[in-house]
Write a structure and sequence with these properties.
By secondary structure, the chain is α/β, with parallel strands linked by helices. The protein is built from 18 helices and 14 strands.
Length: 408
């Protein structure tokens, strides 16, 4: 059988466990980009991501009596494996970093029930992975990689199988989020050269782009873990075998702050809850706008396991990226009326979001941390000109990542 036949067989077998995820046309995005934009809603799977597909396909092929499955994951893969361990009634041991958000640990335990043991170990994922692999070797368990496994890749290809059946044809372009490469490898192996591709990576973890550049998988540590569902330091060996000839021009690097703007918009306007990795493909549309006019495009919304405790951070990052929020260190004269003078400079749409005296930098001056929100980025041009005209000394620290980490 061909890869396509195997992928179709896997997709059909999955129907006994969960229905296909919806492929929905999005009017907002279609109008914005003058194209026919569809979202493959993997955020609506039973575990709110596509990861259970690969877990199911790999596990169904190797299960024998007394099989123990082991994985290392901080989120979606753990939940997919746990869900399938309970379905197949087999034992699973899931290793998770100690720093994993409690919500994800709770959901993994919920999906696995009595069939899954969760072990918290290691501050960093590499430590967690090493512990899981060592345990797997010690007890003779089957270690299940989140992406670097041919059966997992085949399982993820079921997303492409469903897209073709639901759309009734092959889309002109498919936009994929990339972490370890399992979803991208499976989709590309299924569609082959019948469509065009865009691969979107988070700026802080460009493992596929670096692998293509060098010609082999390479560790790009340290990485930014904000887009946790796609923040992978090294693309898989097996996934790279199916992606080695991808053109660099088809790989996009999307900044973490940009992704936040899409998450906020999808939540506020469309009522769609996406995790950072789930918003990657949608945000990438802006970078290929000239290529997709009049075309049929499918974006894979890969997951919706979003912790709402992160919402203030997302809003903060989205506002700073959009240019409607800035932070300044202001040198404030220590005299009566100085604060009133400053407040008089603010425009009708300017709002003080933070005001904190840091210290007196001199006998007659003090340093103030001030955060300002406004309705449009251009308002800051007027504000800074007014500050200059009034003789205020200030420093814009909005884009100083080191300072922002300490003060925000």
């Amino acid at each position: 059988m061909s890869f396509q036949d195997d992928a179709r067989a896997g997709a059909q077998a999955m129907r006994a466990i969960f229905p296909e995820t919806p492929l929905l046309r999005n009017d907002l995005l279609s109008h914005r980009y003058d194209a026919d934009i569809w979202l493959k809603r993997e955020d609506l799977s039973p575990v709110r991501s596509y990861k259970l597909r690969g877990a199911f396909n790999a596990m169904r092929k190797v299960i024998v009596p007394d099989t123990i499955f082991v994985c290392a994951s901080a989120g979606n893969h753990a939940q997919g494996v746990a869900f399938m361990c309970r379905h197949f009634k087999v034992r699973g041991v899931v290793f998770m970093p100690v720093t994993t958000p409690p919500q994800k640990v709770m959901k993994t335990r919920m999906f696995g029930g009595s069939h899954v043991e969760v072990r918290m170990t290691g501050d960093y994922f590499d430590d967690t992975l090493a512990s899981a692999q060592a345990y797997s070797a010690d007890v003779g368990a089957h270690f299940l990689s989140p992406f670097d496994d041919n059966d997992v890749i085949e399982g993820q290809a079921s997303v492409a199988v469903e897209i073709e059946a639901q759309l009734g044809r092959v889309p002109d372009r498919i936009i994929l989020p990339v972490g370890g490469g399992g979803l991208s490898a499976g989709t590309r192996a299924y569609f082959e050269n019948r469509t065009e591709y865009t691969f979107a990576e988070p700026k802080g973890a460009t493992s596929l782009a670096e692998a293509i550049k060098i010609g082999r998988p390479v560790d790009v540590s340290p990485i930014d873990s904000f887009v946790d569902g796609a923040a992978v330091a090294k693309v898989g060996e097996r996934t790279f075998e199916r992606l080695f000839d991808v053109s660099q021009s088809d790989i996009l690097s999307i900044s973490e702050d940009r992704i936040c703007t899409t998450i906020i918009e999808m939540l506020n306007v469309e009522g769609i809850v996406l995790e950072p990795a789930g918003a990657l493909a949608i945000e990438a549309l802006a970078d290929v706008a000239d290529l997709i006019k009049g075309k049929t495009v499918v974006c894979i919304a890969s997951g919706g396991n979003f912790d709402f405790e992160r919402l203030p951070e997302l809003k903060e990052r989205a506002q700073r990226f959009s240019g409607v929020k800035k932070y300044f260190i202001l040198r404030m004269p220590q005299r009566p009326g100085a604060l009133k003078d400053f407040l008089g400079i603010l425009g009708p749409d300017d709002d003080i979001a933070r005001f904190e005296y840091l210290k007196k930098s001199a006998r007659n001056f003090g340093s103030v941390l001030i955060g300002i929100e406004t309705s449009h980025p251009n308002n800051f041009k007027r504000l800074m000109q007014a500050l200059d005209d009034a003789g205020f000394t200030y420093t814009d620290i909005t884009d100083d990542e080191i300072l922002i980490q300490f003060v925000i």
